[in-house]
Design a protein that fits this description.
The complex is a heterodimer of chains A (557) and B (469). Chain A is α/β, with parallel strands linked by helices and 557 residues long. In chain B, the strands form 3 sheets. Chain B has a 6-stranded parallel sheet with strand order 1-13-12-11-14-15, sandwiched between helices. A 4-stranded parallel sheet of chain B has the order 4-3-5-6, sandwiched between helices. Classes of the chains: A alpha/beta (557), B alpha/beta (469).
Chain lengths: 557, 469
């Protein structure tokens, strides 16, 4: 049994992760734990990430060992869907008190496991470690081991206390818990040549079921979905699947890669967002299965299904295309799913005016460029005021984002659609794509907007906050336009590295002065990218731009 | 007189309780230009933030000191310092409200000491409004975090009055955390109708009522301003609402000598009579005609609704003050409070109109409601699974209410708020009867057995508190 810190190091070394592979050894050691800035951080902790990744396992009891905050403030708050069991939506927590903090909470944890098994008898109990018992030294591995032996029921320790890092790390630590304690512990009752694992899909709003009928039709069996609508025994016996699909995110790449390494299950990274992506994914699944011994007619049958579904989807989108062609979409997401959504929207004739790449890997970014052309306006950290201005200048007709930024759009009386995990509609596969287009159409053409954009009758023109925001932004722009020196200063002041607080100008100067050509050089001279390393992508852009022939020429002059 | 029982389970199932630090942060959200800051790992803030955003459907400011494992072990001075400096520089709030969490309390960070050092080291922060409250997650509940924080605000932000002269028109109001922005607005109207000028501390009605702000603000977009808080010592009276606010009211009295009157309830006929007479007394004005009419409307609502609410067997899960207020009102209309579950100790619990109050969770609420044949459940949104399993009408009260709209505007206080609550509940019962309890030729075939079962109810302790080994 490896220690938590060893597991974290192992996760950081993940060779399957493109972002990791691009880092130096020293950078990798620091891992993806972006040094969070006190007073300037947003997003969940590692415990949150672990819970998100595993909670969609529906027949398991998820027990949180910690004070009330960790479970009491967060339980039953995700939109994953179950086709049967409901115990995963039951909140279990040891709700530790002062006595447990002082004398240790292991006994309480053990008793809690016992109570759950006696009352609910789930096939397994997942035990989540949190910060406080991690500090006081409660050994959840030992408690789980003892409980498993005593009650004859797998008790799985998930060692991902919040303070070890962000949500994304928690996803991976959850994967490690599955790899170490669950996957491969049960032999399946039977196998077929059509057995497929789906990894990193959480069945939000039941969207997996938008695709599952196609699998059923083709005879492809989902032997395990990790973890949407998953069952413990399916995951435990998933090592006998023939192939795996990793769904559009790096969150669980360690699971996919290690299963390939240990059990020889080949995987590919795909997505069911958008028509083209869905077709590509189906093809790839069929190809992998046939490669692993499924009858080759699967390929033809898959093509037939793809042709039929595409035709149906296009026919359903057709009436919307007229209404949506030329409509501009401002897309702000964590970035992970950006590229898959970009493709989907373009199929409906819409244009993208921006997308966020905050969490996207370099590969994702390349892909977005490929899809949107070189002019793609990618937004890393857009201030609410700029977001609003972009919407207001009619550069965008609708904003798609996660729940947290919705109010910028809504309060500005601009159409908005939720595309993150709290959303209530399912957008996967061919049917889901049509649904997304329908929802966008409904949002844009709602007659309410016109009323809401009218001033109250007693309000003077240009006195509302929208007008003021625009005026302020325009005034700033006018000052910059009139004063090239100030404009250049503003351009150079753009922050590139947030950890080390290094701006564009500093980096440009260093590149020119020392003839730098790579990120390592820039880091050496400016300390940019010396923190979390996430800005390496931006630094590369600066390098490319500064060293572009036109600029070099200018510099030579 | 109710007996207060604490559950003995090792494992809380379907928690009713939420943590103390976010109760504290919630109080800071009622100050203008505020930024609540939780001293803990980023998840502590993120969970609370998500809860508030989903409840109010509003952008909510809240920051974190983003404690890492190493920082936690070594102590969080640098993180607190960095966080304050960053927030001061970027969002420029008028005040930063800091609450500790379980993880930093386990280490024992001396945040008061940190703040002192930070003020010395950074002259720009020497007089910057910073309020710190100790709120470990592993003690107490949401309501306690709120009341401690409001008391601390009084201690730190209210000036000691320089003269003994008071403004007879000014009234301080210290509302408990169970009052919605809608309740606060209603109270403001009522008090102003008596010619009085209320200062609400905190004022969620100003910040989380869903209004569209004039400017982009990264902090709270309304609420009571610091200058108004500072002068609360000049008011003639302090009105505290909910027993939880006693601590803050006493802090106000100790610091400023402003006398207080505590109203434990504002839901129901008699509590509002008492409230109106108090306002009439301190303002020297008769009760406005508007409220005389509203009293009649409430009386009429009670007459119309008592057929439906009388005899209902209630299962209510809420924090002490809300539980006491709403359950008492329904008991006064003939409902029977069969199951009462709450989160934390409070002096009102002993006076609950039922035999026992359990400090427990929603599993207890569900099991007891099932056993005692309850036919109306009231608790926060997390009760939805239990109510649907029991197939009984469900009304959402308290925080959080993330699966329905308009949580900020639900009212339960005043004649008018009580009237509307009564109608809503009676209509729920009527709809449930129409949908689920239509009589059939067999309904009364075994009628005698049913009525026998209804008159006996198993005692509480046997059901829930039996220790499991």
């Amino acid at each position: 049994m490896s220690s938590l810190s060893a597991t974290i190091q192992d996760v950081f070394n993940e060779p399957g992760c493109g972002k990791n592979a691009n880092k130096s050894e020293a950078e990798r050691k620091k891992g993806c734990t972006k040094q969070l800035q006190p007073g300037g951080a947003a997003g969940g902790c590692a415990f949150d990430g672990a819970k998100i990744a595993l909670q969609p396992l529906t027949d398991v009891a998820h027990l949180v060992h910690g004070p009330i905050a960790c479970e009491g403030n967060s339980w039953d708050n995700r939109g994953a869907a179950s086709s049967g069991p409901s115990i995963w939506r039951t909140g279990f927590t040891t709700d530790i008190n002062e006595t447990d903090v002082v004398f240790g909470g292991e006994k309480r944890l053990y008793k809690a496991i016992k109570e759950i098994i006696e009352k609910y008898d789930p096939p397994a109990v997942f035990v989540y470690q949190t910060c406080v018992p991690a500090m006081t030294g409660d050994d959840i591995n030992a408690v789980c081991k003892a409980a498993s032996a005593k009650f004859g029921k797998p008790c799985i320790p998930v060692n991902s206390p919040g303070f070890v890092g962000p949500k994304n790390l928690g996803n991976k630590l959850a994967g490690e818990a599955l790899l170490e304690h669950v996957i491969g512990t049960v032999e399946p009752e039977f196998t077929t040549p059509y057995d497929l694992n789906i990894i990193g899909e959480y069945n939000l709003s039941g969207e997996l079921w938008q695709v599952k009928p196609l699998f059923d039709e083709l005879g492809i069996r989902i032997s395990a979905c990790i973890s949407g609508d998953g069952r413990y025994n399916e995951v435990a016996s998933s090592h006998r699947a023939r192939a795996a699909m990793m769904v559009c995110s790096k969150a669980m790449i360690n699971v996919a890669r290690k299963m390939e390494e240990r059990y020889g299950i080949p995987f590919f990274e795909g997505s069911f967002y958008g028509i083209q992506d869905s077709s590509d994914s189906l093809r790839e699944i069929a190809r992998l299965l046939v490669e692993r011994g499924a009858p080759p007619d699967l390929l033809e049958r898959t093509e037939a299904v793809i042709a039929r579904e595409e035709a149906k989807a296009w026919a359903a989108i057709e009436p919307f295309k007229k209404r949506l062609t030329g409509k501009k979409v401002l897309l702000i997401t964590g970035g992970v799913k950006s590229w898959s959504v970009v493709a989907a929207l373009q199929e409906a004739g819409m244009e993208l005016v921006g997308t966020s790449v905050k969490k996207s890997t370099k590969e994702d970014k390349e892909r977005i460029k490929e899809l949107m052309g070189q002019d793609a306006h990618m937004i890393d950290d857009m201030a609410p005021r700029e977001m609003y201005k972009m919407l207001k200048d009619a550069k965008a007709d609708i904003m798609l984002s996660g729940g947290k930024s919705q109010f910028v759009a809504l309060k500005a009386a601009m159409p908005w659609l939720d595309i993150n995990q709290e959303r209530s509609h399912a957008y996967m596969g061919y049917i889901g794509m049509v649904k997304l287009v329908e929802e966008i159409d409904k949002a844009i053409y709602n007659p309410m907007w016109e009323q809401l954009r009218k001033r109250a009758p007693w309000e003077k023109a240009n006195s509302n906050w929208q007008a003021k925001a625009i005026a302020q932004a325009e005034a700033e722009a006018a000052v910059l336009a009139a004063d090239p020196v100030a404009a250049e200063a503003a351009r150079r002041a753009k922050k590139i590295c947030f950890c080390k607080s290094v701006d564009l100008g500093t980096i440009e100067d260093a590149i020119k002065a020392h003839g730098l050509t790579d990120v390592a050089g820039v880091r050496q001279h400016t300390n940019a990218s010396g923190g979390c390393g996430a800005c390496a992508v931006r630094v590369e852009d600066v390098l490319a731009q500064t060293n572009a022939p036109a600029n070099l020429l200018q510099a030579a002059e | 007189m109710a007996k207060v029982i604490t559950g003995k389970k090792a494992c809380a199932v379907n928690p009713l309780k939420m943590s103390q630090p976010i109760g504290g942060a919630f109080a800071f959200l009622g100050l203008r230009g505020a930024m609540p800051l939780l001293h803990g790992s980023q998840g502590c803030t993120s969970f609370g933030l998500t809860l508030f955003v989903r409840h109010f459907k509003e952008a909510v400011p809240m920051q974190t000191t983003a404690m890492s494992e190493v920082a936690t072990v070594l102590g969080g001075y640098e993180n607190v310092e960095q966080a304050i400096l960053n927030i001061h520089k970027r969002q420029k709030p008028e005040i930063i409200g800091i609450c500790s969490t379980g993880v930093t309390e386990t280490k024992g960070d001396d945040v008061d000491g940190y703040i002192k050092l930070i003020r010395e080291k950074h002259p720009q922060l020497a007089d910057y409004p910073l309020v710190y409250v100790s709120t470990p997650d592993f003690k107490d509940a949401f309501q306690d975090g709120w009341d401690k924080t409001v008391a601390k605000m009084v201690e730190v932000l209210v000036d000691k009055p320089t003269s003994t002269r008071r403004d007879p028109a000014r009234v301080n109001v210290l509302p408990g955390c169970h009052l919605t922005p809608g309740d606060i607005e209603e109270l403001r109207t009522i008090i102003e109708d008596f010619g009085l000028e209320p200062s609400f501390l905190p004022d969620l009605g100003g910040s989380l009522d869903g209004h569209i702000p004039d400017e982009f603000v990264p902090t709270t977009i309304g609420g009571i301003g610091l200058e108004e808080i500072a002068t609360m010592g000049r008011a003639a009276w302090t009105i505290a609402i909910g027993a939880q606010m006693k601590r803050a009211a006493e802090a106000m009295q100790a610091k400023t000598s402003v006398p207080y009157r505590l109203f434990e309830r504002l839901c129901g006929l008699l509590p509002n009579d008492e409230f109106m007479m108090f306002l009439s007394e301190i303002s020297g004005r008769p009760v406005p005609a508007k409220y005389r009419r509203q009293r009649g409307q409430l009386a009429d609502a009670m007459l119309d609704a008592h057929f439906h609410i009388g005899g209902r067997k209630l299962a209510v899960g809420a924090e002490p003050d809300l539980l006491f207020d709403v359950a008492s009102m329904l008991q006064e209309m003939g409902a029977k409070l069969s199951v009462a579950v709450t989160t934390t100790q409070s002096p009102v619990l002993e006076r609950m109109p039922c035999e026992e109050v359990l400090i427990g969770d929603l599993e207890d609420l569900e099991n007891l409601a099932k056993e005692r044949g309850c036919d109306l459940m009231m608790t926060h949104s997390h009760g939805r699974q239990a109510a649907s399993r029991l197939n009984i009408p469900f009304y959402r009260i308290g925080f959080p209410m993330f699966d329905r709209l308009g949580a900020g505007h639900l009212m339960s206080i005043g004649y008018r708020g009580t009237r509307d609550l009564i109608f809503t509940l009676a209509n729920l019962v009527i709809a449930d009867r129409e949908d689920n309890r239509q009589p059939t030729p067999d309904t009364w075939r075994d009628g005698w057995q049913d009525s026998l079962r209804e008159t006996t109810g198993a005692p509480l302790e046997a059901a829930v508190v039996a220790p499991l080994h």
